[in-house]
Amino acid sequence: MKETDVLVIGAGIAGLTFALKTANKRPDLHITVLTKTNREESNTRYAQGGVAAVWDFETDSYQKHIEDTLDAGDGLCDEKIVEIVVKEGPERVKEIIEWGARFDKHGPDYDLGREGGHSENRILHFKDYTGWEILRAMLEKAKTMPNIHIHDHYFAIDLISQHHLGRVVTRLTPDVECYGAYVLDLETNSIETILAKTTILATGGAGQVYRSTTNPVIATGDGIAMVYRMKGRLENMEFVQFHPTSLFNPAGENPAFLVSEAVRGFGAILKSKEGEEFMHLYDERKSLAPRDIVARAIDNEIKKRGDDYMCLDCSHLDKEKFTAHFPTIYEKCMSLGIDPFKDLIPVVPAAHYVCGGVKTDSIGRTSVKTLYACGECTSSGLHGANRLASNSLLEAMVFAHRIYEQVIVEIDDLKVQTGIPNWNAESTSDPKEMVLITQSWKELKEIMSNYVGIVRSNVRLKRAADRLWLLFGETERLYATTTISPQLCELRNLITIAYLITTSAQMRRESRGLHYTTDYPNKHDYIEMVLR
Q1: Which residues are bridge partners to 52 per DSSP?
Q2: How far, in Å, CA of 306 to CA of 528, rounded?
Q3: How many helices (H) and strands (E) are present in the chain, helices listed first?
Q4: Is CATH 3.50.50.60 the right assignment for the domain spanning 2-238+355-413?
Q5: 477-489 b/e with 16+ CB inside 10 Å = b?
Q6: What is d(CA 494, CA 210) in angstroms, rounded to the nearest whole number?
Q7: How far is CA 38 from CA 58, 67, 125, 152, 155, in A?
Q8: Contacts of residue 513, Cβ cutoff 8 Å, sequence gap at least 6
Q9: Going by fewer Cβ within 10 Å, which terminus of the chain is more open, N or C?
């Protein structure tokens, strides 16, 4: 059993922003940061496009960024939260620049890119691996903070609450508290109890619930699933963003390689395999429409034409500027025999970002006492029914900062809970057949991809729910009788995520943002039903 002042689960941009600020302000605090693989691996690392922030006030404004975000969110954004993130965002970006993060420039000015749904150029970027650069700077900064203790290969199994003290906890219990987490040390294969005065959840997304995703293999929704089991409040899980343009690779790839939306912002045009443009049929903004519109358009064209993919045409772009801005994308295409200046780039939509998650307020508080959350695992109110491109890194930094400001005020009045039992592994044995886990994982991905993807229907959702119930029962029996492994825990978490997405989609009887159903194609039907 270990004790720490602050426990941070996740070492992406959200978790590290909080840890760095808190460690700098309070060098007396012991800050423990856990990551279930190595500290360089997180969803942050894979962010290509950049971070959206109002930078050039001669052409841009807070109001424009707010309006773009609200438009993309299709009526479900919290306007107060949108205003907070947009107006506080530039200061947070300046801070990571001070920490050493680099962004591309044209002379003395930043080279601001543009992506779908944005009315102005406001995306700060570093080549086409902005997330990697931000993470590099933060990890370098963390090395200078002796009170930040980053533990690699530590897998969080469950958050600890009154339930573990023998008290019955339900979703109606008003005072659920978080005391820390049970954690599997993957190097020693031992389960540790880590107790903390306050816990920060920054566990990222859940793209691995689908067959094709741009997310790394660690994106298994662990934080969201743990809060659900803890009886915490979640919302908007039906809104899963599919990035319109992952690179089509018939050999298969996990994660799918992302062709950044910034490529379309640079001037690339979506076309069919025959070279025909089609986005004008769906939205006047064409290839720069918001992601939900573009992903559905590509999905529809693929089904209508009977093709495996649509294409991006970059042949008319400046080669020198393109290769300087998108070196990773250019090299990846060339490695597969695709010359972006001679060939059309084959693209397909892939699961990319969960807009729902753990419900938080304006300072990152969850419904569970002493548990805060920030980043993709949350539903902060910023994204609504669809995330505006490059708003995610901004959201993570803004809420990490707000949580930091609250924690340093209250931390001295908090205590570590005593009497917590260690993990009980009695009456369990090593799994006899790993195929039970791997096959269930494959089945799960197929169920979600076929029935709960870009286009949904009541019949598909019902079929998904029925099959998920069978998988859930099988996996819970396996969990109850075998020793803990990361593969089993991830499967269990992904089944929970799949259940939450599916049941949330069943309850939303309208089409809005990222949730499109053939049974309720008009969102106004839902409004009229509620009014009746």
Answers
A1: 123
A2: 36
A3: 14, 20
A4: yes
A5: ebeeebebbbebb
A6: 10
A7: 42, 38, 24, 5, 11
A8: 72, 73, 74, 76, 239, 292, 355, 384, 385, 386
A9: C
Which helix (H) or strand (E) segment holds residue 517: the answer is strand 516-517
C-alpha 456/C-alpha 42 separation (Å) is 29
On the CB side of 529, how many CA atoms lie within 13 Å of its CA? 10
Looking at the chain, how many residues does it have? 532
Q: Which range, of 24-28, 153-157, 165-169, 267-271, averages the lowest pLDDT?
A: 165-169
Task: Read off the tokens for 340.
Answer: 């972006």
Amino acid occupying residue 294: V
Which one-letter amino acid corresponds to residue 292? D
Lowest mean pLDDT among 15-24, 96-105, 477-486: 477-486
Domain residue spans of the chain: 2-238+355-413, 247-349, 435-523
CA Rg value for the chain: 22
Beta bridge partners of 177: 369
Q: Are 270 and 311 in contact (CB under 8 A)?
A: yes
Regarding the domain delimited by 247-349, which CATH topology (the fold level of the hierarchy) does it fall under?
Answer: Flavocytochrome C3; Chain A, domain 1 (3.90.700)
Written as six digits, the tokens of 167 are 């008290």
Q: What are the pLDDT digits (tens) for 175-225?
A: 999 999 999 999 999 999 999 999 999 999 999 999 999 999 999 999 999
The whole-model pTM stands at 0.94
Cα–Cα nearest to 471, from 503, 433, 449, 442 = 442
Which segments within 288-441 are labelled E, that is strand? Answer: 310-313, 345-354, 357-359, 371-373, 378-379
- CA torsion through residues 112, 114, 115, 119, sign: positive
The rounded percent of the chain whose pLDDT value lies above 90 is 87
Backbone angles phi, psi at 177, to 5 degrees: -125, 155
Rounded distance between C-alpha atoms, residue 166 and residue 191, angstroms? 20
26 is catalytic: no
Q: Which residue has the tokens 């997304």?
A: 205
Burial class (CB in 10 A: 0-12, 13-18, 19+), 228: buried
CA proximity to 515, closest of 237, 228, 211, 234: 237
From 26, 114, 122, 291, the catalytic residue: 291
**Does the 435-523 domain belong in CATH 3.40.50.300?**
no
Query: ω into residue 255 within 30 of 0, thus cis?
Result: yes
Q: CA of 59: how far to CAs of 64, 112, 284, in Å?
A: 10, 12, 22
pLDDT at 525 over 60: no
- CA 160 to CA 271: how far, in whole Å? 51
